[in-house]
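hiii so my PI (J.) wants the whole complex modelled not just the main chain, which honestly fair. so below is everything: two entries, each one labled with what it is. i double checked the lines twice but i was tired so who knows lol
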Amino acid sequence: MGEGLTLKDVAIAKDGVPLVALDRHIGPGEVLTVMGPSGVGKSTLLAFVTGTLPSAFTATGQVLLDGTDVTHAPPHRRGIGILFQDDLLFPHLSVGQNLAFGLAPGGSRAARRAQIEAALEEVELAGYADRDPATLSGGQKARVALMRMLLSEPRALLLDEAFSRLDAALRAQVRDLVFARAQARALPILMVTHDVEDARAADGAVVMLGRT
Amino acid sequence: MSRRFLPLLPALTLIAMLGPMLAGLYGTILPAFGHLPAAGREGPSLEAFRALADWPGLPRASTLSLSTGIVTTLLALAITMTLVAGWSGTRAFRVLERALSPLLSVPHAAAAFGLAFLIAPSGWVARATSPWLTGWERPPDLLIVQDSWGLTMTAGLVIKEIPFLLLMTLAALAQTDAARARAISAALGYGRVTGWFKTVFPRVYAQIRLPVYVVLAYGMSVVDVAVILGPNTPSTLSVQIVRWMSEPDFDARLLANAAALLQLALVVGALVTWRLGEIAIAWLGLRWVARGGRSSGDATLAGGALVLSVTSALAIGGGLAVLAVWSVAGFWGFPDPLPASFTLGNWARHASGLNEALGQTAVIACVVTLAAVILAIGCLEAEHRHGLRLTRRGMWLLYLPLIVPQTAFLPGLQTLLLNANLDRGIWPVMLAHLVFVMPYVFLSLADPFRAWDPRTANVAAALGASPDRVLWQVRLPMLLRPVLTAAAVGLSVSVGQYLPTLLIGGGRVSTLTTEAVALASGGDRRAIATYGLMQTAAALLPFALALGLPALMFRNRKGLQHG
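here's the output for the full assembly
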């Protein structure tokens, strides 16, 4: 199926009881929104895609990234980025150090610093590299978390209720930014949410999960 | 490498912890039944048990072990529970909590010496009240310290166990939704103490049951506190075991091993009795709940518990103060409250001995703690990566080395090492220390490690970080404070170890603790004071560092300042 993120005949069960089943392809720059009430296994689906499925679950099917099967690759070798509803910035590192953690290795010190500075500028946070992440506002933290993820050069992006902690005004702004930055990099996006607004803004295919 | 090695660590840890204990029990059973080939004795025979039964001190020594252990546990538990029931959440409680926490790491021996120096006939309490209140011009001829009922010894244990049980209870409270239970029971008209005992206590007790068993077993078999504060005519069973072990004659050694098995049986019997008591209390408690009484002398109970807790904190703190005064005392006549002159001569006189003992203490404590911290982190990381988690039943294994009395298996371990010609140097001592340091280090590290948000690891992995990089660059730095605290706990446990050092070191390894306890019979208060203070400092200093270092390193990181 070529470029993009493919979930091929994915089925996840807990203790033998089927939970989620999905068979979809997400092309570069496309968004697939998975919706449904809490508890139907939306986050479980993402855990399967990132390779962090808890052992209580069993899964069948394949995850293909740009045509390569990554179903059995360890999480850190998959090249699949994820954003959670919490920013999960590392509290012991500065903003710049957080970004450096994400930035793929290689390049001179000066070049790396320049990349980090450019990333901060991209989200209007120029000059924030030395700040303590705990002193940032919610919107600022979300933007740093986004850039940290993008600097690691993932080939797909997952969003796990990524905007649900932000208040309404901020929410639309951060959401537009995430889609814009990810689509500028032609990343396939798999988003789970329970918010209709998120789905509408994504402007892509929507899958409804639920107890049928 | 780590992928193959890491899953083995939990097993390795269990072996390091339980191996010496099981080997020691085996090594105790054989000579107890007359089997000691090294001395030309072939068993099995019951001679040693017959000799033990003929020892006239046996009933008294056994009773003392039982009474000190059970009374200590009952008192410490009752005071701690009533204190938490009556005061948790108040300002007084926070103050007391902050005062009691550092007291936990004061070594038992130093606390015991301090108490002795406070309440002995020539102690600070008598001096402060003489002659204006008591009329005493010279120390009265009273047997307060080392009284034949073991009351002072019990008091010395209670003041040290209250901080221990309190901290265990505070950790348990966090998982019991106590605040809402309190609000509900208050809304239903229940008094603070009554409401707490009826709603929160059962949940808390289920969580602190194993620590309570530790207190019970420890109180029944402790040696250093019993040497300092316990009776001599006869002494407790554990002290007698150590005396027999140190006699050159082989019959005494067989006798010691038989007595060690008796000690084990006494502890097991007491634990079973305690368990039955729990069931009875639960049954009575349910009837008490069903009667619906809203208050039962709540104010009196809460007040009493506060007074007793403050007294026990003062007893430890005041004990350290009087040690400090004695360590720099020149001539100090009775009943003067302070010495006539102060001098650093005591410190100078003991400087070389102190230095040597401090060096040994530090080497042993650092190596053992480093090993324990590495093993504990390895176990918790294996749990995180491979789901190798200790079950609730598995927690028993962790507590086992703390519940099986030291006097029951250390004599056997010494015999085994002696036979294998491995009883030289400090390595065996370190192995023995690890048995007791490991559980405390693991327990203090486990909660913060498990509470760490696993999504942090998921995000780091999604950023391309390998599991090892996540451990070294994310998890350990974020958990620096608990790691250092666990190390401080390990160091202070190792510093305070008496019996493993004495028995496994064969008397050739001298730490601050063994030296201090050895001074107990001599009665040189100035010497005792210097060693006791040094021992306390060695146990307390790591805690100060554990608090200070992260505060310094993360002074610009708000997100880690309350972690």
